[in-house]
Amino acid sequence: KNLIWQHLEGLKSPYRIKRGQIHTWNIWPGRHEAGIIEDFGIGNSQAQWFIRSIPAIKDIFAEIWHTRELLSSMDGIGIFRPWHLNLQIQQRDITNNTNPWKTTGANWHVDQSPVQKPNRVCVQGIINLLPADETTGGLMVIPSSHNRFHELLSIWTKSKNNSKIPVYHEILQEGYGLLIHAQPGDLLLWDSRTVHCNTP
């Protein structure tokens, strides 16, 4: 956690983020509505490399792929501001049941192209640094949706490696979403063909 805070505190203007100083969290990097920071060097940060280099994590991925020669992508982090502590919330936000800090969630997507890569080629993972449940939000998946990956061909833009799943798609109509409860240190893994999103 400390390395993530160091990275956030080191961002240049207009960011003035300081841990423990909630009033500095109004200007926040990334896509707050999705609960993700994918830019600002976060994928290649010390925090990310520290987590990727934990021997037990490397052992798990080596077992999955039957090799110790592993390739890791440089992706983002899932991070939510505690929206219920937003000191800047306006009366209109309370009236409209909105909050500019709150992750809206339901950005259902897959991070693999069914056109170019129809088989399993990637296993994604999250290390939880804090507890995740209904009170905090976290990762949601559509269980077994990787078995229906071919059904996404009709919505795919061939040039893209990932795609948002429209809310009307049949995959989202059956057994809608499972929030993964997790504790600090838990490693969550899923086939990249699995439909998933963050939820507040």
From TrEMBL:
<protein>
    <recommendedName>
        <fullName>Phytanoyl-CoA dioxygenase</fullName>
    </recommendedName>
</protein>
<dbReference type="InterPro" id="IPR008775">
    <property type="entry name" value="Phytyl_CoA_dOase-like"/>
</dbReference>
<dbReference type="Pfam" id="PF05721">
    <property type="entry name" value="PhyH"/>
</dbReference>
